[in-house]
Amino acid sequence: MIQLNTNHIQTIKNHAEKTYPNECCGLILGHINSEYKTVVEVITTENVWNTEKGNFTEDQEHSTSSRYAISPQVMLQMQKEARNRNLNIIGIYHSHPDNPAIPSEWDKIYAWPEYSYVILSVRNTEAGELQSWTLDDNHQFQAETIELIKLANLS
After folding, report:
1. Which residue, 27, 36, 72, 88, has most beta carbons within 10 Å?
2. How many CA atoms lie within 13 A of 106 on its CB side?
3. Is 98 helix (H, G, I), strand (E, B) or coil?
4. Would you put residue 86 in left (φ > 0), alpha (ψ -120 to 50) or beta?
5. 116: Cβ contacts below 8 Å, ≥ 6 apart
6. CB of 40 closer than 8 Å to CB of 30
7. Rounded to 5 degrees, what are φ and ψ at 150?
């Protein structure tokens, strides 16, 4: 299970709608215990697929409308920043423009077992279904329950 609050979800939705018709992507920082993952912060990142795709020689014909990549430098910087704040990178989010929030074969090939993969479907600039996925021991995606944590009313 992954716990997200309404601000986290809104950040992902805003990013996805802004970048449509391209895929957006970002990192999810938080804590992991034996029962669930708690999201502390969602970090928007640039989709650098067009500059990083040289690292994926078997798939040159795709663009940012159907692929995403987070810069290795950004990953390293965020790992250090998270560690300094006693957090971990616990997941990655990305959007699927005009497609369901279901992992693609591409998503599966490049996924890491310890992460949650939050996918948001965006159709005609409108954010839609949000789902989270994790890899099982057979490197197959399994749906992960999203628990919505409501923010305390500060008024």
Report:
1. 27
2. 15
3. coil
4. left
5. 2, 28, 37, 90, 91, 92, 132, 133, 134, 144
6. yes
7. -80, 140
Beta carbons of 26 and 79 less than 8 angstroms apart: no
DSSP state of 22: S
Burial class (CB in 10 A: 0-12, 13-18, 19+), 22: buried
User: Where do the H-state alpha helices sit in 4-124?
Assistant: 6-19, 49-52, 72-84, 105-109
**Joined tokens for residue 15:** 């990013």
Per-residue model confidence as pLDDT tens digits over 69-127: 999 999 999 999 999 999 999 999 999 999 999 999 989 988 998 999 999 999 999 99
| pTM recorded for the entire structure | 0.89
Q: How far is CA 40 from CA 18, 135, 150, in A?
A: 23, 22, 13
Q: 25: closest CA among 67, 57, 58, 59? A: 67
16, 120 Cβ separation under 8 angstroms: yes
Peptide bond just before 97 cis, omega within 30 deg: no
Give the span between the Cα atoms of 155 and 150, in whole angstroms.
Answer: 14
Q: Would you tell me how many other CB atoms lie within 10 Å of the CB of residue 17?
A: 15
